[in-house]
Amino acid sequence: FVTNPVKIMKCDSKFEVFVTRADMPESGIEMIRRECNVKLWNRSSPVPRDEFLKLVPGVNAIYCCLTDKIDKELLDAAGPELKAVATMSVGYDHIDIQECNKRGIRVGYTPDVLTDATAELTVSCLLLATARRLPEAQAAARDGGWESWSPMWMTGPGLADSTVGIVGFARIGQAVARRSQGLQHQRIIYCSRTARHEAKEVGARKVEFDDLLAESDFVICCAVLVPETRHMFNRVAFDKMKRTAIFINTSRGGTVDQEALTEALQHKIIRGAGLDVTTPEPLPLDHPLLSLNNCIVLPHIGSATIDARKTMAELTAVNILEALKGFEMPSELKI
Ligand code: DGY
């Protein structure tokens, strides 16, 4: 039994919205469905590119997520009736913003509503789990590697009195800093294009990228993926880090040269890494990063709390509805 991959939900509206996933949170879809005709990709996996190109001609808005590439080809296929693209994500590197701007297509995204969830995963889960080697320790407990309590077995660095360096100090970077304060890091330093007044509240000091790499015990990447940040964590960068440093990335895999990271971990240029994002996603099962015991890889779950995902879905819906009515989106990307 194979269901139709496309579900049409009609109401009495002149607008049609294409939704790229069947498992978008229900409340968001419902908001759109009440006011617009909906064409839904009725699968919980991403819409294949050739289908995507075939399904968008004539739609007025696209409700998408970070796995859907919205580029010139897709916008051409959609045609002049497309007025809005709203992504259920804060990241927008999958959307050609310039091309949308050129065509007057409004772009919505979901900042703020996932900040806490993402910062929580970054600090309270990934950083702690990497430092204290939780997956390795649990595997040992399960597979017989736990022979007895042993003085230096499964030890890792503590967080108190360490220096945490945050790269990218916008909403998520700042929320990471607030949580780091609670963990009594001795110093919080950050680098970003501009000095941020919010840094004072958490006692964070702005430094140059190279100084951050050299001084940090924990280097946390919260930078958006733009051409200037692509592969900013490369061989040169890992060489500048302390040999005891732990690298955490919850932004985008594209900020990291993964080959360089793999080598840095294999040759103990740095101590460990915790990644919630990779290139590609999912990471192929035979990728060397997945076999290193000093690397934790999570499947891009930074914002995966039930509330965050629901709120993201609803904000995406409101972004579309407001744009179609000719109003400003509550979270409109303007760059
Ligand atoms: C985003 O919204 O960009 C996040 O990466 C999703 O968790």
UniProtKB/TrEMBL annotation:
Residues 126-302 form the D-isomer specific 2-hydroxyacid dehydrogenase NAD-binding domain. GO terms for cellular component: cytosol. InterPro entries: D-isomer_2-hydroxyacid_DH (IPR050223), D-isomer_2_OHA_DH_cat_dom (IPR006139), D-isomer_DH_NAD-bd (IPR006140), NAD(P)-bd_dom_sf (IPR036291). SUPFAM superfamilies: Formate/glycerate dehydrogenase catalytic domain-like, NAD(P)-binding Rossmann-fold domains. Pfam families: 2-Hacid_dh, 2-Hacid_dh_C. It comes from the Eukaryota. Residues 23-332 form the D-isomer specific 2-hydroxyacid dehydrogenase catalytic domain. GO terms for molecular function: glyoxylate reductase (NADPH) activity; hydroxypyruvate reductase (NADH) activity; NAD binding. Keywords: Oxidoreductase. Belongs to the D-isomer specific 2-hydroxyacid dehydrogenase family. This is Glyoxylate reductase/hydroxypyruvate reductase. It comes from Trichoplusia ni (Cabbage looper).
